[in-house]
Amino acid sequence: MTAEDLTVLGIETSCDETAAAVVSGSGAILANIVLSQLDEHRPYGGVVPEIAARSHLDHLDRLVAEAMDKAGLTFAELDGVAATAGPGLIGGVFVGVMTAKAIALAWDRPFIAVNHLEGHALSARLSDRLDFPYLLLLVSGGHCQLLAVEGVGRYRRLGGTIDDAVGEAFDKTAKLLGLGYPGGPAVEKEAAAGDPAAFALPRPMVGRPGLDFSFSGLKTAVRQAAEQAGILGGGDVQRRADLAASFQAAVGDVLAERCARALAVFKQDYGAAGPLVVAGGVAANRSLRARLERVATAAGTRLMAPPPALCTDNAAMIAWAGVERLRLGLTDPLDFAARPRWPLESLAVRG
Ligand code: KG4
Ligand code: ZN
């Protein structure tokens, strides 16, 4: 058997999506099932950890069976079982890790504990055959980081947010404007009908040295603008679209300036400006993707962004990270403990 023929089952339960997928060593996605818990959390305006964990428990076994069925494989035919082992809501992470360990133990298959952020970080290698190193902008609900991806398990942090994550800023803006939950897709949809120049919002950190981000000031500015325009929690539809568009444009400007700067740093350190990869839930945003594409082109490189379904949480990226680790012989013992916090830079790879 060659590395191309490997098949790995991936399990993702770190937040509010229960997901199972089977991916091959050649990057073929043989099954990719995502069950969103949105309806269960919507009444609370955000993810409730207890509800999430219980829901993962209720649905995961069935989703795994469906994924295996779809892939046309038995557990015995798998080369590895990978699960998100952190960072994330620990109750949910436990459910995924215990399930993966049980399958690994029962069928004597290798277990791979995947860092959720590494799943996002390597997703562009699943969707496009991409070589190391590359510059990664990782933007999700809980994270906003610029990283040099040197190899599997080898991440160098260049900068990150000093307060809110980008996805969090989208979610809070959506809440302020009464657009509901989850915020990212709702703000993007609303922004499409708005004028991005209608409201003058700040561009925090732009022009400052370094590669860090800050979004809490932008969130405050959105609240003030919404109050002044009388659209806090709802109101005039056009004004609301205008503020959503203005917010999205401000985020776009911040990400663009930081990425342009990071591409220059990356070029100095690695000899080439990029490619620039954007991953994580916020990378599903088409307007931000277009903005970053212009940045990459201006720097003489290209933007690689996985298709939106591989940007938001899914198990295909976890299975793929499993494939990448398995190929290097990086498997984990069955007593590997799930981790609520697990910085990407701390992943040590031997050799
Ligand atoms: O990666 P992800 O699915 O989960 C985490 O690991 O956090 O990211 C979820 C975040 C949420 O904050 C969501 O609002 C945001 O990604 N998001 C978006 C879009 N789709 C999801 N933000 C902006 N535009 C979108 N289209
Ligand atoms: Zn994620």
In short:
The protein has 351 residues and is of the alpha/beta class. The chain has helices at 38-41, 49-71, 90-106, 116-127, 166-176, 183-191, 216-228, 237-270, 286-298, 308-311, 316-327, and strands at 7-12, 17-24, 29-36, 80-86, 111-115, 134-139, 144-151, 154-160, 276-279, 303-304.
List keywords for this structure.
43% helix, 11 helices, binds 5'-O-[(R)-(carboxyoxy)(hydroxy)phosphoryl]adenosine, five-stranded mixed beta sheet, binds zinc ion, 351 residues, alpha/beta, 17% strand
Layout of strands and helices, then pairs:
Blueprint: E1 7-12, E2 17-24, E3 29-36, H1 38-41, H2 49-71, E4 80-86, H3 90-106, E5 111-115, H4 116-127, E6 134-139, E7 144-151, E8 154-160, H5 166-176, H6 183-191, H7 216-228, H8 237-270, E9 276-279, H9 286-298, E10 303-304, H10 308-311, H11 316-327
Helix pairs in contact: 2-3, 4-11, 5-6, 5-7, 5-8, 6-8, 7-8, 8-9
Number of strands: 10
The topology string of helices and strands comes to EEEHHEHEHEEEHHHHEHEHH
Task: Please work out how many helical segments DSSP would assign.
Answer: 11
- The chain-level mean pLDDT equals 96
Shape: globular
Q: How large a portion of the residues is in β-strands, by DSSP E?
A: 15-25%
Major sheet: 5 strands, mixed
- The poorly predicted ranges are none
Q: Can you list the ligands bound to this structure?
A: 5'-O-[(R)-(carboxyoxy)(hydroxy)phosphoryl]adenosine, zinc ion
Terminal Cα span: 24 Å
User: Residue share in helices?
Assistant: 40-55%
Q: Supply Rg.
A: 20 Å
SS class: alpha/beta
